[in-house]
Amino acid sequence: MTVELSIESLVFGGNGIGRLDGKAIFVPLTAPGDQIRCRIVRDKGRWAEAELIDILSPAAERITPPCPVFGLCGGCQWQFLPYSEQARWKEAIYRDLLQRQAGVAAEKIRPIVAAPEPYAYRSRAQFKCCQSSKGFALGFFRKGSHSVIGINACPLLPAAVNRLIPLLKSAIDGTAIAVHIPQIDAGIDDRGQVRLVIHARDNAVAAVAEMLRPLALQEDFALFVQGDRQGGLQHICGEEDLVISCDTPLLALAYKAGGFSQINLEQNRTLLNAVLSAAELQGTERVLDLYCGMGNFSLPLARRCAEVVGVEDYAPSITQAKINARQNNLSNIRFHARPAAGALRAYGQDTPFDLVVLDPPREGASDVCRELIDLGPPRIIYISCDPATQARDLKTLLNHGYHCISAQPFDFFPQTHHIESLAILARS
Questions:
Q1: Which superfamily does CATH assign the domain made up of 89-116+278-427 to?
Q2: Distance CA 264, CA 124 (A)
Q3: Which of 214, 384, 407, 410 is the most exposed place for a label (fewest CB within 10 A)?
Q4: 385 is known as an active-site residue
Q5: Residue 61's closest CA among 79, 85, 37?
């Protein structure tokens, strides 16, 4: 069914929304003010999903996306909007979710912290790869498929990573190893050091390493090869660790291939400063950092309190967190490789925590929330990469003895619909 719509607003998830006889129609790649023709592809009764066929009259704010594969690649949703408009809509979406779903008062929600750079901000990327009769494609999956859209550069990546894309394509295209490389992971740190992890079928690991090592040495990037079953991760050449910096005076946090770090390093430092300010530590407190990773929040917090307990269920990150604490001469931190659920009770039953910091994955922290309600730490700092699950968890906490001091969105991912956020709660 083909219909014409006027797009009214943007919604969580990045789609535009129009109405047909009162029924909400969600359409990707549309902007408020667009007059469009679209095709209904999924009718859910009270609402429907559609695909854009044509823009009959574009919104006044529309701009030409700088990326030649925008709309084909599934990575970005909003390149057709000026960055100021993207930030405005992210703040509006976040406000709506927290007010409507969690009952947070409007005056408690602070303005968005926009990114200083809307492009070239990503410190990590996963390139999908495919060898075909047209050559070796290195890029990203087409939206909703496993078909690779090849690129020569990505505007979200820094120049030091983009310059390697044509070099890799030229080195791999048509060779015996090309069909054995499904993915290449790229990372860059605060020093400008680049690290590549080449994923390879097990029977091609040695050949991949031999063929790409000269390029790595010539272009000065660290090279690893990851086998798909038995071989594991092999370090071929270059520095093993990437290093990010934070806090004042600077802390150096290293992480290994396969480890996690925030994608937007500048915004990560901004968010960390907000966390440290909100913590209001006096030096005597005991802090629990859940989903602590390699110590991004744990180490700066430890500088300002009596003790930090960090918990993360990915054991290699805990190993790295311990190394980072040792290398930064911080001895008042204990790290544990275990699930976040149960940690508050395990480590805070006898000596309570004054503050709990949590930064869960997209699914949120519903199990942890039940513990927080039972044990009632005085303050909670909840960092989130998904406003919907944060709103769900905040509603639970606000209905069981906590009040919201403030909540604020941070834009870590310009050109996309993703929203990072920080909520500060206190026991009522």
A1: Vaccinia Virus protein VP39 (3.40.50.150)
A2: 9
A3: 214
A4: yes
A5: 85
pLDDT tens digit string along 78-133?
A: 999 999 999 999 999 999 999 999 999 999 999 999 999 999 999 999 999 999 99
Active-site residue, selected from the candidate residues 130, 246, 305, 385:
385
End-to-end CA distance of the chain: 53
How buried is 29 (Cβ within 10 angstroms: 0-12 exposed, 13-18 middle, 19+ buried)? buried
- 129-133 — which CB contacts under 8 Å span 24+ positions? 129/172, 129/181, 129/182, 129/183, 129/184, 130/182, 131/172, 131/173, 131/174, 131/178, 131/179, 131/181
Is pLDDT of 151 > 70? yes
Strand-pairing partners, residue 36, are: 5, 55
Give domain limits for the chain. Answer: 2-62, 89-116+278-427, 124-242
What is the fold of 2-62?
Answer: OB fold (Dihydrolipoamide Acetyltransferase, E2P) (2.40.50)
Sequence letter at residue 77: Q
Q: What's the pTM?
A: 0.95
Residue range 124-242 forms a domain whose CATH class is: mainly beta
Domains 89-116+278-427 and 124-242 share a fold: no
3-state SS, 319-381, equals HHHHHHHHHCCCCCEEEEECCCCCHHHHHHCCCCCCEEEECCCCCCCHHHHHHHHHHCCCEEE
Query: Strand 148-150 to strand 124-132: parallel, antiparallel, or no bridges (unpaired)?
Result: unpaired
